Amino acid sequence: MLAKRIIPCLDVRDGRVVKGINFEGLRDAGSILEQARFYNNELADELVFLDISASLESRRTTLEEVLKVSGEVFIPLTVGGGINSVETAKDVFLHGADKVSVNTAAVNDPTLITRIAEKYGSQAVVVAIDVKKIGNDYIVHTHSGKKPTTLEALDWALKVQELGAGEILLTSMDRDGTKEGYDNVILSRISTSVHIPVIASGGAGNLQHLYEGFTEGHADAALAASIFHFRQHSVREAKEYLRERGIPVRL
Asked: Cα 80 from chain centroid?
């Protein structure tokens, strides 16, 4: 079995790392560079950098910050926020990213996934899917969760796989920042239906939640922010906890 990955996420706004609840009520979570350096030394498998207001504000990702972070870390770096063309993706790669994450622009123009994948390889394309449960359905949202679409999460996940995505970053908006655990229902539904890796996101509040994301949600990787940013747990501690419980991790 492939090793499961632990991925801290830097939600960035106005030059700082921030964290909210259900995509709202953002609070400061420290310096971008200090957090990046910390995770680089902490056995994190990868790092995600999301410029969370770029699409909402119709602008590009802050490339200067990406360049600074890429110069500090020696683990794979995924960058998202405002990436709406192959040219924008190119700029992000030139500033040190290993992968790009697309969400709003991919919903608006699904061919973007294919075009980036054809130029840079599927392994470089992560499609972020932000979902909110409405009735019995999980509906895809865009613009940092502000705008609901008509897309159902599993249908969209299967579509982005077909279009050439190499990975899916699945975030439960209902669980985001709540520390109540991942929504393992939709996580399992998608993870067991696609053949590309799925990253669990939204709701990790303790180490047991990471374990459940892998065992109940069948995720390939677990993304977390609050429990790491505020030093509730370290990445090493999380990996040791998981390894003791039979989850293969890199230590």
From this structure: 9
Residue (of 19, 65, 12, 70) closest to 40 by Cα position: 70
| pLDDT tens-digit map of 161-180 | 999 999 999 999 999 888 99
Give me the residues paired with residue 6 across strands: 222
Q: Specify the pLDDT at position 22.
A: 61
CA atoms within 13 A on the CB side of 153: 29
Catalytic annotation, residues: 11, 130
The pLDDT tens digits of the residues spanning 41-87 come to 988 999 999 886 655 555 556 788 899 999 989 999 999 988 999 99
Cβ 209 vs Cβ 239: under 8 Å: no
As a whole number of angstroms, the distance between CA 13 and CA 238 comes to: 27
Predicted local distance difference test score (pLDDT) of residue 130: 96
Which pLDDT belongs to residue 20? 60
Q: Is the pLDDT of residue 133 over 90?
A: yes
Question: What does the domain layout of the chain look like in residue ranges?
Answer: 5-244
| Cβ neighbour number for residue 46 with a 10 Å cutoff | 20
| Tokens found for residue 56 | 């909402």
What pLDDT is attached to residue 55?
53
C-alpha dihedral (222, 31, 103, 24), degrees to nearest 10: 90
**Which residue type, as a one-letter code, is found at position 161?**
Q
| Closest to 240 in 3D by CA, of 214, 211, 219, 212 | 211
Q: Which superfamily does 5-244 belong to?
A: Aldolase class I (3.20.20.70)
